[in-house]
Amino acid sequence: MKYYLTLGFVLLVITVISSGILAYINSFTQPIINENQRIAKEKARMEVMPDAVSFDSLGSFNDETIFTAVDESGNIIGYTFMASLYGYSSHVKTMVGVTTDLKLNRIKIIEQKETPGLGANCVKPEFQELFIEKYEHELLVDKDGGKITSLTGATITTRTIANSIRNGINYLDQLISFQTDTEVLNPDAEVENDSN
């Protein structure tokens, strides 16, 4: 019995030390990972809205910020947001750029762990180009009666991307409508806030 208690205690000590080392290493690597993810999102925003010179926060969707894309004259030329849904074997995260009339400008898959050679082909430019200049109601795969050709052997991945983008555009449309209605109902809100 004493042997088993000793063995259990040794295993406990090894587990505690290992956990401590992992936590210590994580405290150094997590900020680097977060910074790399921030840079990747920033680059993806520029790719989906290349005519923008700056991006301003508008709201949030799926715990990610929605941005307005602004040109060099200060005009809003569109919006960007992160669309995400669970596909065949992972969450597929897509940076989406839309024009002011909510037509897709470009998309960029920035994170996925789908099946190599099948769903993972969603990162290929020729697949992502299928979404250009589509409106929300056109975001249906061919097997659902739409115009977006499914990846071979990966209809679920294709449908996931289309659905996540459609959900994002729908949310963005509601957000813009809400903000527009609020401005119409209370046009002096900013003036009153500035005077305080």
Would you mind describing this structure in some detail?
It is built from four helices and five strands, in the order αβββββααα. It is α+β, with helices and mostly antiparallel strands and 196 residues long. It has one domain. The longest helix is centred in the first third of the chain and has 47 residues, at 2-48.
Query: What is the strand arrangement across the widest sheet?
Result: 1-2-3-4-5
- Oligomeric description of these chains: single chain
Shape call: extended
Q: Gap between N and C termini, in Å?
A: 75 Å
Structural category is alpha+beta
Note the main sheet. Answer: 5 strands, antiparallel
Name the beta content range.
15-25%
Could you state the order of secondary-structure elements as H and E? HEEEEEHHH
Q: What is the number of helical segments per DSSP (H or I, 4+ residues)?
A: 4
Radius of gyration: 23 Å
Mean pLDDT: 88
Q: Into which percent range does the helicity of residues fall? A: 40-55%
* Strand count: 5
Unreliably modeled segments: 189-196
How many individual domains?
1
What is the gist of this entry?
It is built from 4 helices and 5 strands.
